[in-house]
Amino acid sequence: MQGIPPQVQSMLAQLESYQQQLQLLVQQKQKVQLELNEAKKALEEIEKLPDDAVIYKTVGTLIVKTDKEKALAELREKVETLEVRLNALERQEKKLNEKIKELTAQIQSALRPTAG
Fold this sequence. Notes:
Elements: H1 6-48, E1 55-59, E2 62-66, H2 68-115
Helix pairs in contact: 1-2
């Protein structure tokens, strides 16, 4: 980074930090999306079952019996929670991308006069 003004070095360090945050955010978003897809698929399958079907769910390391109504309610709540979380992560991702774009433009602008 020799020859790069300290102000630009600082901006580059901030840009790197933003990029790392974005990478973590994308990983979290993928994890939530996967959980959401699984919950929706489970919901679809349970909805197909007769009302008196025997359903089991995992609770920690145990498998316990539950009824269709309870299972549906729990899964709907899980889907709703995951959708809210996914929306929040998408908003964060958008804001972070905007910050990265803005900072990149500032860095390019700061380097332009010295590049000539």
